[in-house]
């Protein structure tokens, strides 16, 4: 049975915290707690180990959100951090960035933005769980080899055999530590090679690294918004530099 994804909200404005909790609950997620202080959040995480922490960056008290995040990381917790913030100056942003958050959500929280961010975060967690399961199993010899590339297709190792994937059928790839995952319309494959290696193999204008964790097939993009591209109804985060490169390539088509 799959363990449900659990979420902790750390917000000193309890009305805002309750509103976020209600939105998440309506979306079908399990919010296990709302706490107003960093010290309480650290104690809660020690006892309950939530998968995701929505953390107000400007917590009042002795510890702000960034101090809290640093302590969480120092203690080695595996929870995924998402910052909540109304206004963040450059200095604060740079401090926050050092704690390696998965995302920043701007206040007031927009339901659609919250939904997309949590969906992406949950996908990352589920991929990591699958990778952990794979790590616990002895890998067949061929999975330690690089994937094979032949003009319009690649061959990847899956269940002790090589499987052909046409390059045009690849929608996007997701990085996870030393592994990566390939998504097509109907299938997904976990590879025991880093995304960088696959990106090097797929040296073509057809693929673009839109985020440190995502390599997308430009031909598969259905929609483009301010901070996301959409492929097969999946919202994929996109950094500003990648957006500029994407439009350059699209203008050449």
UniProtKB/TrEMBL annotation:
4-aspartylphosphate modification, residue list: 56
Keywords: Phosphoprotein
The Response regulatory domain, residue ranges: 6-122
Protein name, as recorded: Transcriptional regulator
Superkingdom classification of source: Bacteria
Record InterPro entries: Bact_response_regulator (IPR050595), CheY-like_superfamily (IPR011006), LytTR_DNA-bd_dom (IPR007492), Sig_transdc_resp-reg_receiver (IPR001789)
PROSITE patterns: HTH_LYTTR, RESPONSE_REGULATORY
Ranges where the HTH LytTR-type domain occurs: 154-224
Signal peptide coordinates: none
GO-annotated biological processes: phosphorelay signal transduction system
Gene Ontology MF: a single term: DNA binding
């Amino acid at each position: 049975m799959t363990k449900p994804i659990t979420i902790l909200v750390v917000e000193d404005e309890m009305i805002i915290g309750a509103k976020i909790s209600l939105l998440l609950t309506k979306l079908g997620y399990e919010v296990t707690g709302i706490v107003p202080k960093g010290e309480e959040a650290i104690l809660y995480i020690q006892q309950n180990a939530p998968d995701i922490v929505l953390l107000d960056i400007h917590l009042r008290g002795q510890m702000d959100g960034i101090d809290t995040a640093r302590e969480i990381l120092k203690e080695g917790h595996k929870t995924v951090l998402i910052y909540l913030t109304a206004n963040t100056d450059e200095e604060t942003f740079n401090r926050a960035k050092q704690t390696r958050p998965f995302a920043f959500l701007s206040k007031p929280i927009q339901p659609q933005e919250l939904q997309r961010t949590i969906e992406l975060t949950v996908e990352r967690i589920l991929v990591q769980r699958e990778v952990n399961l794979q790590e616990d199993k002895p890998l067949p010899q061929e999975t330690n080899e690089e994937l094979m590339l032949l003009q319009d297709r690649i061959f990847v190792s899956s269940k002790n055999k090589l499987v052909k994937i046409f390059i045009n059928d690849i929608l996007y790839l997701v990085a996870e530590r030393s592994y990566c995952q390939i998504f097509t319309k109907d299938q997904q494959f976990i590879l025991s090679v880093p995304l960088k290696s696959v990106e090097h193999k797929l040296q073509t204008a057809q693929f673009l690294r839109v985020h440190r964790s995502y390599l997308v097939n430009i031909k598969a993009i259905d929609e483009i918004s301010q901070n996301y591209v959409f492929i097969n109804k999946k919202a994929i985060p996109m950094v500003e530099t990648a957006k500029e490169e994407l439009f350059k390539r699209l203008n050449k088509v």
